[in-house]
C-alpha cells in the first residue's frame, strides 16, 4: 500500500534538508514510529520484524534502559574530567570483559572514533605510520577509519583513493576469494607477508594491522583457521600492534563467543567496540594495555567531551546488566544456531542460496546465480529485500557484490520471530519477488 500522505510529505522534507550522501533504506520506506524488542511499528500501526539492527542488541524500547538513562539525566551529565562513580565503574567493567593484559579503557562515542583512536595509538606506540588492512572492509567514516576502509560497496572509488600508509591485503574470504575452503590459511597469510615485506623494502616501519575478527562486512564469514595467530605473530615481530575491530562482531552477538577473536584463539593488542554496547546511545571504547594507552601521551592528552559521560556510562552498564539478566548471549547462541539450521534447510531447496555464513545472531545468507561460478545474485538480493519488506521483514544486503543478506537482529530475537523470518524468506524464494 502507498504510505499515508503525511509520510510522503515528511520524506520530501527529509530529502530537502538531510544531506544526500546519508543513505536511507528503501525507495518507499515506511515511517517508523516506535519499537518493541525485535519489532518496529510504523505510523499506521503495521509491525515489521527488524532483522538488521545490530546496534539495538537488547531490542527496542527497553524500559529498564530508558529508566536508567532518564534517572541519570536528571541527576547529572557532564564530562569525564570530573570524578564520578559511573566512569570508574564502567571502565573497570569493560576492562574485566577483555582478556588479561588488556586492562585500560578509553571511552568515546562511536565505532569510527574508536577505530581512529586505535590507529593513533598504533602510530604513537610504533613511531611508524603504515597500517595493513583487509580488502572489502569497513571501519568507519572519520578520516583515519575511512582510510583503512576498502569496501567498494560503501565507496566505489575506495581502492584508488586510499592514502599511501594504508596497505590493503587480499580479503580472506574462504567462500569466494582467490583461495577457497579451510585449507587456504597459508595463501592468505602469504598476502599479508608480501605487504609486510614491501613496507620493509621501502625502508619504512610498521604501525599495525587492523581487521574484524570475523569478516563482518563480507557477510559474517569466519577467518580461515589459524589466520590471526600467524598474522599477529608476523605483525608483532616487525614492531606493529594488532587491532581487533569488534564493533560489529564482538560483545556477545556471536553467541558462542563474547569476542570475535576468541574464535581464532588469539588476543589482540587493541580492541575497538561500539554499536551494541550503547544499544543505540552513542558509545564507543578502545580497550588496550596500559603501555600502549600511555604511548598516546607522546601526542598530548586525550579528551572527548561526551565520551565517558555519566549518562553514557550508566547506559553502558545497564546494557551489560540486561544482557546478563536476560541471558542474551546465550539466546544469540541458541536462537542463532536454530535460525542457521532453518536457513541451511532453505539452501537444500533453493539453488540461489550459495551459503549460510556466520554464527550466533551474526549470519550472512549469500545468494549466487550459479554454485560453481559463484556469480553474485545482486539484483535478486535487492528484489528479495524489497519483497521481504512487503511481508513485514526488515532486511538489507551487504558485501562488495551486495548479494549477502546481513542477518543481525536484536539479541532478544525469539524462536517465533526466527521462524517467521525463515518462513517469509521461503515464501519469497518459492513465489518470486
Ligand atoms: N567498524 C565496523 C566493523 C563497523 O561495522 C562500523 C559501522 N558499521 C564501524 C567500525 C563504525 O562505527 P560507527 O558507525 O559507530 O562510527
From TrEMBL:
This is Aminotransferase. Belongs to the class-III pyridoxal-phosphate-dependent aminotransferase family. The chain holds residues 543 to 975 of 975 of the full protein. It comes from Rhizobium terricola. Transmembrane segments: none annotated.
Amino acid at each position: 500500500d502507498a504510505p499515508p500522505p503525511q509520510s510522503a510529505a515528511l520524506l520530501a522534507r527529509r530529502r530537502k534538508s538531510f544531506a544526500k550522501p546519508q543513505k536511507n533504506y528503501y525507495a518507499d520506506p515506511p515511517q517508523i514510529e516506535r519499537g518493541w524488542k525485535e519489532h518496529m511499528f510504523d505510523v499506521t500501526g503495521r509491525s515489521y520484524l527488524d532483522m538488521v539492527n545490530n546496534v539495538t542488541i537488547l531490542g527496542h524500547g527497553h524500559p529498564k534502559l530508558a529508566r536508567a538513562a532518564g534517572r541519570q539525566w536528571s541527576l547529572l551529565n557532564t564530562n569525564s574530567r570530573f570524578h564520578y562513580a559511573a566512569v570508574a565503574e564502567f571502565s573497570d567493567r569493560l576492562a574485566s570483559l577483555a582478556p588479561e593484559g588488556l586492562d585500560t579503557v578509553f571511552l568515546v562515542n562511536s565505532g569510527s572514533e574508536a577505530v581512529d583512536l586505535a590507529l593513533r595509538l598504533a602510530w604513537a606506540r610504533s613511531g611508524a605510520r603504515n597500517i595493513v588492512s583487509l580488502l572489502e572492509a569497513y571501519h568507519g567514516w572519520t578520516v583515519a577509519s575511512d582510510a583503512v576502509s576498502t569496501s567498494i560497496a560503501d565507496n566505489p572509488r575506495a581502492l584508488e583513493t586510499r592514502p599511501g600508509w594504508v596497505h590493503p591485503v587480499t580479503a580472506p574470504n574462504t567462500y569466494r576469494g582467490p583461495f577457497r575452503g579451510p585449507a587456504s590459511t597459508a595463501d592468505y597469510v602469504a598476502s599479508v607477508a608480501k605487504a609486510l615485506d614491501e613496507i620493509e623494502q621501502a625502508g619504512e616501519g610498521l604501525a599495525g594491522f587492523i581487521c574484524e575478527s570475523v569478516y563482518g562486512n563480507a557477510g559474517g564469514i569466519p577467518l580461515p583457521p589459524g589466520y590471526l595467530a600467524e598474522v599477529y605473530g608476523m605483525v608483532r615481530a616487525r614492531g606493529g600492534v594488532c587491532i581487533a575491530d569488534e564493533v560489529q562482531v564482538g560483545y556477545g552477538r556471536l553467541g558462542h563467543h563474547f569476542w570475535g577473536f576468541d574464535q581464532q584463539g588469539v588476543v589482540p593488542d587493541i580492541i575497538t567496540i561500539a554499536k551494541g554496547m550503547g544499544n543505540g546511545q552513542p558509545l564507543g571504547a578502545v580497550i588496550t594495555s596500559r603501555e600502549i594507552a600511555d604511548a598516546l601521551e607522546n601526542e598530548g592528552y586525550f579528551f572527548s567531551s561526551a565520551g565517558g559521560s555519566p549518562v553514557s556510562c550508566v547506559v553502558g552498564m545497564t546494557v551489560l546488566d540486561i544482557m546478563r539478566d536476560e541471558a542474551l548471549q546465550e539466546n544469540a547462541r541458541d536462537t542463532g544456531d536454530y535460525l542457521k539450521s532453518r536457513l541451511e534447510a532453505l539452501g537444500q531447496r533453493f539453488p540461489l542460496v550459495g551459503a549460510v555464513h556466520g554464527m550466533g545472531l551474526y549470519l550472512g545468507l549469500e545468494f549466487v546465480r550459479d554454485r560453481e561460478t559463484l556469480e553474485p545474485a545482486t539484483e535478486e538480493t535487492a528484489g528479495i529485500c524489497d519483497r521481504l519488506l512487503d511481508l513485514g521483514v526488515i532486511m538489507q544486503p551487504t558485501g562488495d557484490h551486495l548479494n549477502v543478506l546481513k542477518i543481525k537482529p536484536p539479541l532478544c530475537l525469539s524462536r517465533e520471530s526466527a521462524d517467521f523470518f525463515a518462513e517469509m524468506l521461503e515464501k519469497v524464494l518459492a513465489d518470486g519477488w
